[in-house]
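tl;dr need the bound structure. longer version: we got a ligand (guanosine-5'-diphosphate) that a collaborator sent over and nobodys looked at where it sits. i said id run it. heres the input, straight from their email, havent touched it
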Amino acid sequence: MNIHEHQAKELLRRYGVPVPAGEVAFTVEEAVAAAERLGFPCVVKAQIHAGGRGKAGGVKLVRDAAAAQAAAKDLLGKTLVTPQTGPTGRVVRRLLVEQGVAIARELYLGMVVDRAAGRVAVMASTEGGVEIEEVATTAPEKILRETIDPVVGLAPYQGRRLAFGLGLAKDQVGQAVSLMTALARCFVESDCSLVELNPLVVLGDGKLLALDAKIGFDDNALFRHPDLRALRDPSEEDPREVEAAKHDLSYIALEGDIGCLVNGAGLAMATMDTVKAAGGMPANFLDVGGGASTEKVAAAFRIILGDPHVKAIFVNIFGGILRCDVLAEGVVQAAREVGLAVPLVVRMEGTNVEQGKQILAASGLDIISAADMADGAQKAVAAARRAA
Ligand code: GDP
Ligand code: MN
């Protein structure tokens, strides 16, 4: 789950990371009032779950109330297209109004989970304000790295090494080390998957400040953080993923046209591989889980049916704890409600498979049955080609 910049800064402030004074605004009036409280110059920033706003006109420096009003009017409701939003862009529904600052240097500081190292990695670079992916490809030597020992945490010497590498002056090193330590604590305690300050700035007076902040959390740990979970902004997320989360389904939208309904994450991944091996592309990853009820299966099937990219559906179930009859009832229920407009291929094995098949046969639904997984994948790919 990602959160907005203003929420990320609020969280960082609680951990003692220096951030600019600022207020969130949902209307032009709120933005102007916030600007007047903060004083001028101030910055009006579009809040969307994507970076690259600066270059797209989503960050405006304003010098008086009239300019703040004009900036807020322009940005609220606007669709902002940045390299990170994709061509459809994102609608700006809220703003962050912040005190303007005088910037001497723009640096980069990020933390991510490094899967290969099995640790949190800290990355720092003198090339702040630029997309770090670009730095990584054009000048990888400009990215400094440290990995955090999970027992010890970020050691002070690691912080100092990064601070010196960033070319910070002696009296800024202490500041940098405490900022990095606070950031690392926030990362671990909040179960983050990504924290990025781009830029982390050095001000005219030598102080460090997180001018931009992006935070992503590990969805699997959110149950431990109801306060963070409450920060979710569904308008920034894929509506099908939001619907799936409501039903506690593991669903991830993908680019292809074959909707997959599977039980078990391992089988779901194997199904996607098999679909690809048969020459097709899955439209989603969907694991309904072990103990799914008829209602849950119906919700999952409805989500797939609601995806306009889906040209065929492949249901691949190995009935264990999830019984085939329960699955079949869920599919029939959803298909009756929404209408089955695309070919449906079903491969079922395991507990109560005969009852499951009877329910599907009695439903009158036009179902293509598959002998095994590979057969099902091939039939789904062929059906999608015919439909396309
Ligand atoms: P992004 O483009 O979505 O990553 O948005 P950022 O929050 O990083 O802002 C983009 C750029 O706006 C920064 O790199 C800064 O150069 C500039 N900027 C943001 N706030 C201020 C400010 O208070 N003063 C000045 N002078 N520039 C700012
Ligand atoms: Mn930025």
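gonna send this back to them w/ a short note. The chain is about 40% helix and 25% strand.
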